[in-house]
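Assemble and predict.
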Amino acid sequence: MIKVKNLHKSFDQLKVLRGMTTSIGKGEVVVIIGASGSGKSTFLRCLNLLEIPQKGEIFVDGIDICAPGVNLNLVRQNTGMVFQHFNLFPHKTALENISLAPLKVKKMAPQEAKKLALTQLERVGLRDKENAYPRHLSGGQQQRVAIARALAMQPKVMLFDEPTSALDPEMIKEVLNVMKQMARDGMTMVVVSHEMGFAREAADRVIFLDEGVIVEEGPPEQVFFHPQLPRTKEFLSQIL
Amino acid sequence: MKFLDYSVIIKNWPFLMLGLRETLRISSLAVTMGFCIGSFVALARLSRSHMLKLLSGAYIEFIRGTPLLVQLFILYYGLPQLGINLDRRAAAAIGLSINSGAYVAEIVRAGIQSIDKGQMEAARSLGMSGTMAMIYVILPQAFRRVIPPLVNELIMLIKDSSLLSVIALTELMRAGEHIRTRTYKDFEIFTFIALVYFVITYTLSKILGYLERRLQVSD
């Protein structure tokens, strides 16, 4: 589903990604861990071109998304993104947040878009919140609406950028549960997160990123409990 | 103290109301135009094009840096020398709109820049084009946020419209001057005119304040 070859990205003098190479299969759930500044978020943001890499290739569903003349807006429709701070549109209700892009980007009929939005709200367990504005929702509910919003575009891949880092502990679970359900439904997911419980239960693979390259990767049990490299051990000892 | 005679207001009521009508007409026209000009100039200023940035920046700086009175004189008394003859109403409307546009542009630009950049990212990540994201996500939030400074600008504009009296447009202020030259009741006339301006601006500020609160509820 995703193929990344020798990906480089720097901001001015700062080299963030220094030649990342990996591939992610259809339906695979990959969790990316690493210290702050290791390039996790940048990598994720390159996958839907919120950041444009300087060098390297990214294929999503067989399309070279870094090729010149590629339609950015079309690429992004295939890759839904969930942000750390939700980024819901505060002037729109939960329902409007979800139906906006299908209406405007896919030119869906209003009735159809509404139906789709309600289905997605149902899916994240917030059917009764259709008319609520984001500020009337808890953090966990906002993040679930944000997930529903991304899903409404029927993406082939879902990207999660620290989806639970801004949440109070009691709300993390409700968001993770929605994500686990998505994983069971066969969605291809790339998740930047240090939620070990989620990784162990739902991830097929954990990638440890350090200084812009993949240092170690493997099944969650192996990376978390039997890391091979000292750098990985050191990092894990800090977060566990 | 001489005796004050406010009957001069009653006697000249229809004429004063004609002036008021002109003030309201030209102000509402200039507010609408100024808002449109300002919004487009703000977008130009934030665009990636160096040319647009330069032009919009120059416009804003020039208009803000010169008196409205001078701008009106250039339009109405200066331009005919170049063969461009604007009638007084056109000169007034254009002058006031262009002037207000510069201030509105800065207000709207600040509003747009105050919106968290995560909003643009979220919109783009859903496949919206930059223009779409601007129209449906950024601008509605930005405009809500800048209602107070925009109301301020509206009130300034209504008061500034009194300057139009110098290019012979018979709005409220000039209507007063006409009556004054006939009656010499300066105090009565201008206190009344001040009161009229105050009633307009105060009412508007109250109505828009109410609207602002209404909009915030759904925010």
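The mean pLDDT of chain B is 94.
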